[in-house]
Amino acid sequence: MPFDRRALELVTVPAMYRNWVMSFMLHWTFALELLICAWALALGFRRLQPVAATPENST
């Protein structure tokens, strides 16, 4: 968008339900987005956990 005003769609979500929100929520790309977000949250929470004191890193 910063350099080109043409629309770009990687995947077209067809209107299969009367409510457009349901069409997006039940499409396979929404599951992929949820998987990516869950992965990012898991990586973030793993970094927040304190490292146990071991002989190599204790002072």
Write up what this structure looks like.
The protein contains two helices and no strands. The chain has 59 residues and is mainly alpha-helical. The chain is elongated, with a radius of gyration of 21 Å. 46% of the residues lie in helices and 0% in strands.
Write the layout of secondary structure elements.
Blueprint: H1 20-25, H2 28-48
Low-confidence stretches: none
**Structural category:** mainly alpha
Radius of gyration: 21 Å
Residue-averaged pLDDT? 83
Instruction: List the secondary-structure elements in sequence, H or E.
Output: HH
- How much strand? under 5%
Task: Count up the helices.
Answer: 2
Helicity level, as a percent range? 40-55%
What's the β-strand tally? Answer: 0
What would you call the shape?
Answer: elongated
What composes the largest sheet?
none
The termini sit apart by 52 Å
Summarize the structure.
The protein is mainly alpha-helical and 59 residues long.
Q: What key attributes describe this structure?
A:
single chain, 59 residues, mainly alpha, 46% helix, elongated
